[in-house]
């Protein structure tokens, strides 16, 4: 594999950083190549503004999708964006690692997607062989790649289960898995999650590190989340599932073509309470 590891945690001594180091070491030991975007260490600017598009005339109204596509096609996006896009072109696998803050990723990571996944690169790509149809949800600018989230959270595992007060983790990550990875054509691999991160003891860390190493060892053969392709014939012209597809099912689950593959929960580490590194 050629792995791009995107890391989003501000503390280099955090649990997240330690797990990232474990993961990169495991990739090297398995003979895989990797590159990294450590967003806080890079001082990544998460804010989309006119500076991203140097050729956009100041007097013109800024329509971000239009301006970003024009700048991308002309090779005139800002240099930091182009550097990240080159890493993505090189990679066949993206690993996106972050602590779950307010039920989502840190703003710096959201801003990385906002600025790097521009129209004409990650989305808004047309299929010339099919009447100019826009390629998305299983197709798109990043098709042929796989992506996995590595998530730490201070909450206990049961609270992120099907009846947990926090909502189940699959639902919380649906915007990332389906709306970002799958939308741009990348296959979303089930996440690796570490719970009780604020109370992790030495034994809990050892379990989390071992679990991550094992997940990375088996990653090339891990079945992706079975989302339905938009071009698979199951959606109507309004991008709504046909009435005969998954009848009675609504919400995120309706967009799964089958039940989750066996072993999917094996990537989650419900670490026990104790004293140790906080990583909320």
TrEMBL record:
The keyword Ion transport does not apply. Gene3D superfamilies: 3.40.50.360. The keyword Oxidoreductase applies. GO terms for cellular component: cytosol. GO terms for molecular function: NAD(P)H dehydrogenase (quinone) activity. Keywords: Oxidoreductase. Pfam families: Flavodoxin_2. Residues 1-215 form the Flavodoxin-like fold domain. Residues 260-280 are annotated as: Disordered. PANTHER family: NAD P H OXIDOREDUCTASE-RELATED, NAD(P)H DEHYDROGENASE [QUINONE] 1 ISOFORM 1. Belongs to the NAD(P)H dehydrogenase (quinone) family. This is Flavodoxin family protein. It comes from Streptomyces xinghaiensis.
């Amino acid at each position: 594999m050629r792995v791009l590891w995107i890391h989003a945690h501000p503390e280099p001594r955090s649990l997240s950083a330690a797990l990232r180091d474990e993961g990169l070491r495991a990739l090297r030991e398995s003979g895989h190549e990797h590159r990294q975007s450590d967003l806080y260490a890079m001082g990544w600017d998460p804010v989309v503004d006119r500076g991203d598009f140097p050729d956009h005339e100041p007097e013109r109204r800024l329509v971000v999708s239009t301006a970003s596509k024009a700048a991308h096609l002309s090779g005139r996006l800002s240099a930091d964006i182009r550097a990240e896009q080159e890493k993505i072109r090189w990679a066949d696998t993206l690993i996106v690692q972050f602590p779950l803050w307010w039920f989502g990723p840190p703003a710096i990571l959201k801003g990385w997607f906002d600025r790097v996944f521009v129209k004409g690169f990650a989305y808004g790509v047309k299929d010339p062989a099919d009447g100019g149809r826009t390629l998305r949800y299983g197709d798109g600018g990043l098709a042929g790649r796989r992506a996995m989230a590595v998530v730490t959270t201070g909450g206990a595992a049961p609270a992120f289960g099907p009846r947990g007060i926090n909502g189940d983790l699959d639902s919380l990550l649906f915007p990332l898995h389906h709306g970002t990875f799958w939308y741009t054509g990348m296959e979303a691999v089930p996440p690796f999650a570490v719970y009780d991160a604020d109370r992790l003891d030495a034994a809990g860390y050892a379990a989390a590190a071992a679990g991550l190493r094992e997940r990375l060892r088996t990653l090339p053969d891990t079945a992706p989340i079975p989302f339905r392709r938009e071009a698979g014939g199951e959606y109507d012209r309004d991008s709504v599932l046909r009435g005969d597809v998954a009848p009675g099912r609504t919400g995120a689950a309706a967009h799964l073509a089958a039940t989750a593959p066996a072993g999917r929960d094996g990537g989650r580490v419900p670490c026990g309470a104790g004293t140790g590194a906080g990583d909320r």
